[in-house]
Amino acid sequence: MDNFMAARSQMALSLAFHIIFSCIGMVMPFFMAVSHYLWIKTDNLIYKNITRAWSKGVAIFFATGAVSGTVLSFELGLLWPEFMKHAGPIFGMPFSLEGTAFFIEAIALGFFLYGWGRFNKWFHWITGLIVGISGLVSGILVVAANSWMNSPSGFDYVNGKYINIDPIKAMFNKAWFSQALHMCIAAFAATGFAVAGVHALMILRKRNVSFHYRAFKIAALFAIVAAILQPLSGDISAKNVARLQPPKLAAMEAVYKTEKGVPLLIGGIPNDSTQEVKYAIRLPNLLSFLAYDNFNAEIKGLDQVPATDRPPVAVTHYSFQVMVALGMFMLLIAILYLIILIKKKSWQNKRWLLKLFAIATPMGFMAVEAGWTVTETGRQPWIIYGIMRTKDAVTPMPGIIYSFYIFTAVYISLSLIVIFMLYRQIKMVPVLYDVTNDKNMH
Predict the structure, then answer these.
(1) Assign residue 254 a region: left if phi > 0, alpha if psi is -120 to 50, beta otherwise?
(2) Which of 23, 29, 39, 361 would you call most buried, defined as having the most Cβ atoms within 10 angstroms of its Cβ?
(3) What b-and-e string marks burial along 350-374, b requiring 16 or more CB atoms within 10 Å of the CB?
(4) What DSSP string runs through 372-384?
(5) Contact 247, 299 (CB under 8 A)
(6) Cα–Cα distance measured from residue 49 to residue 197, given in angstroms and rounded to the nearest whole number
(7) Largest Cα–Cα distance of the chain, in whole Å?
(8) What share of the chain is helix, strand, coil (3-state, %, to 5)?
């Protein structure tokens, strides 16, 4: 493995782990705030116990997210020095603001964790809400920095030099809103289904049913709202990609030839040598409509992109298909659960419904990972789209491969520690939190 592949592999590994920690850290405080609010309003001790249990999870993921995020910030400078040399002054603002949001989140979390019985109950609740808001702002700011790589703006590139730098324009580039919206909703859907799935599994095993049922309901409501909204944000993102990065859209949908009235592909195996896609279900003219609101619109194919500028089609296409398939599965569960809440309330405790949520536990995060693969792989071979190639940004420092092995071990260890701590936390629920009679489920 050469330096280039080692650096890319290390960055991919770091992002793959960090995105899970950060998504949960962004979203769980909102679940916690809802259960805390319900405790204040109803005085039902179960909601207080759910809040305290979830707050331990928030603390775990805040700590691991802080570690993995710090590693990523160092990696940007160590692995991609040429990139940071030029890009740092341009898109540094969202990173510096993210640091501020992180400090606010840390202070608020400290107040919340140690504020039980010490603060006014509403002030205490507000500190928990601030944890969620500042975490969400942090995520939006990081995505703003990433979106700049997909849609560079806020500078003029003249004779290899970056001049007339405008950090505000760079931060609020043409891709930031669609990416931030899609990512935030994805975080709520992924975390909602993961948390609901864990509690559904505990209900199926008849463990502390009253506790887990109420926790399940809060997480499931967040999950279904996000899952229903996600296709709408996906549509906005796809239209934005079609406008700003036509080669990425072509790779996502394996469009080899420029045509009008292009079909939407479901599945399929792309072949770069024959420039064909086999075994795909084709929905006539639908891609043209989804991209440009016109069934006969022209889609720019890879035949109009120089061979050296084409993203890897197979990885981008398969990742996109996986993301969409998982998103559709979660959407179906969301619609079904919504119908049950409105029309068939007696079905809320059906084992088959709980099993559906349990099966969906990892699906949101699998979709998030696939979506980020599309975002990053679909931009290749550029690290700054149309400006700087990834291979030109990598460090010349030898021995990166050993760094990759070390960081792989660190992240695997970190993940095992998190799994152990969460498992222990779930096992502690009967001892610490569940003080009610399970027969009073409703």
Answers:
(1) left
(2) 29
(3) eeebbebbbebbebbbebbbbbbbb
(4) HHHHHHTTTTEEE
(5) no
(6) 19
(7) 74
(8) 75, 5, 20
pLDDT tens across 261-318, in order? 888 888 888 887 788 878 888 888 888 888 888 888 888 888 888 888 888 888 888 8
% the chain with pLDDT above 90: 7
Q: Which amino acid is at 308?
A: T
In Å, what is the CA distance from 152 to each residue of 155, 171, 173, 175, 291?
8, 9, 7, 9, 21
Q: Assign 432 a pLDDT band (cuts: 50, 70, 90).
A: low
Q: Please answer whether residues 225 and 63 qualify as being in contact, where contact means their C-beta atoms are separated by less than 8 angstroms.
A: no
List the beta bridge partners of residue 281. Answer: 266
Give the residue extent of every domain in the chain. Answer: 181-251+305-397
Per the DSSP assignment, residues forming a β-bridge with 276 are: 271
One-letter amino acid of 97: L
Q: Which residues, including other chains, have CB under 8 Å from residue 409's CB and lie 6 or more apart?
A: none
How many Å apart are CA 227 and CA 214, to the nearest integer?
20
Residues 77, 85: contact at Cβ < 8 Å? no
Contacts of 222 by beta carbon, 8 Å cutoff, 6+ apart: 27, 30, 31, 188, 191, 192
Of 165, 175, 101, 86, nearest to 139 by C-alpha is 101
- What stretch of H or E contains 279? strand 276-283
Output the pLDDT for position 433. Answer: 52
* Cβ proximity of 200 and 358 under 8 Å: yes
pTM: 0.86
| Closest to 327 in 3D by CA, of 376, 292, 371, 373 | 371
